[in-house]
UniProtKB/TrEMBL annotation:
Belongs to the UPF0174 family. This is Cytochrome b pre-mRNA-processing protein 3. It comes from Aquamicrobium ahrensii. Transmembrane segments: none annotated. It comes from the Bacteria. Residues 36-173 form the Ubiquinol-cytochrome c chaperone domain. InterPro entries: Ubiq_cyt_c_chap, Ubiqinol_cyt_c_chaperone_CPB3, Ubq_cyt-c_CBP3-rel.
Length: 181
C-alpha cells in the first residue's frame, strides 16, 4: 500500500492525473450550469457538479484494464481528498469530517449508480429524473432536461476521445450551453 501511495508509479500517475482532475474541476465549474441551468451555487451544488463530471470520466474508463484503471482509481482518490479538504475549509471539525465523508461517499456512489443505469438503458426520462432528484430535490427543476442533454453529449464526447490521449493526461468536456439549447 505504501508503494502505491508514495512510489514512483504514483508520481508518474500524478503527472497524468493532475491535468485530468483539473479538466474535471474546470468542467464542473462552468458558469453556465449555475447561471442558466439553475444548479445551486453552493458547496452542495458544486459537489453535485464535480460528482457528475467525475462520474462521466469514470463511466468512460469503466471496464478498461491497465493504466486507465490505475488512473481512474487515482482520480477517485483525488476527488475524495478534495472533498475532505473542502469540508475542512468550510470549518467542519476533525471529528465531524469522517461522518460527513461517509455520507458524501454514499451520495456519490448512489448518484453514479443512478446515472449509469439511465445511460445503460438509454432512458432520457430516467436520467432527467435522477439529475432532478440529486441536484434540485426541493423544487420542480425545469432545466434538468437541458443538463441531461449535456450529460449525453459529454458521454459521446468522452467516448470519442482515445484511451491513449486520456492516459496521456488530455481530456476535453463539452462547453455547457452548446447542446442546441
Amino acid at each position: 500500500m505504501f508503494k502505491r501511495l508514495f512510489g514512483a508509479k504514483r508520481q508518474t500517475n500524478r503527472e497524468i492525473t493532475d491535468p485530468l482532475y483539473g479538466a474535471i474541476v474546470a468542467a464542473a465549474r462552468q458558469p453556465y450550469f449555475y447561471s442558466h441551468l439553475n444548479v445551486p451555487d453552493t458547496p452542495l451544488g458544486r459537489f453535485e457538479m464535480l460528482s457528475l463530471h467525475m462520474f462521466l470520466l469514470q463511466h468512460r474508463l469503466h471496464g478498461v484494464e491497465g493504466q486507465a484503471q490505475d488512473i481512474a482509481q487515482v482520480l477517485i482518490d483525488e476527488f475524495f481528498l478534495d472533498v475532505d479538504h473542502s469540508l475542512r475549509e468550510l470549518g467542519i471539525s476533525d471529528v465531524g469530517v469522517p461522518k460527513r465523508m461517509k455520507r458524501l461517499a454514499k451520495m456519490y456512489y448512489g448518484r453514479t449508480a443512478a446515472y449509469a443505469d439511465a445511460l445503460e438503458r438509454q432512458d432520457d426520462e430516467v436520467l432527467v429524473a435522477a439529475l432532478r432528484r440529486n441536484i434540485r430535490p426541493d423544487e420542480e427543476w425545469l432545466e434538468s432536461a437541458r443538463l441531461a442533454a449535456y450529460v449525453k453529449e459529454a458521454v459521446q464526447n468522452l467516448s470519442a476521445q482515445t484511451l491513449e490521449s486520456i492516459c496521456a493526461g488530455s481530456l476535453q468536456f463539452p462547453r455547457a450551453g452548446e447542446q442546441g439549447q
